[in-house]
Model the fold of this input.
Amino acid sequence: MRTRFVAEIGGEVAGTVSGGDGKTSRAAAVTAMWVDPRFRRQGVGDLLLTTVLEWARADGYREVFLWVTEGNESAERLYVKHGFARTGETEEVRPGQLEFELSKTLR
Done:
């Protein structure tokens, strides 16, 4: 199962986030997240991440995983602010560029 949330400001799409099943039946995954550059640093990312975490919790998931591309410090700061931490897992997203897996336990 997948779900997508869209944030709009003044009738324009400001950002989106998608979530779905993760590694196990008790884990969800944030499968995509994007905030329009015009709306960054205005709380849209916080709202989207909070919304997808609330969805995961309400659907009975106990943990959430996501991947962040190496060099995307602003996204990783947002995730860490919301309680995510690196798991130690990495994968190559493009030749010479890694992604880092992060996870958060839901309560």
Notes: The chain has one domain: 2-105.
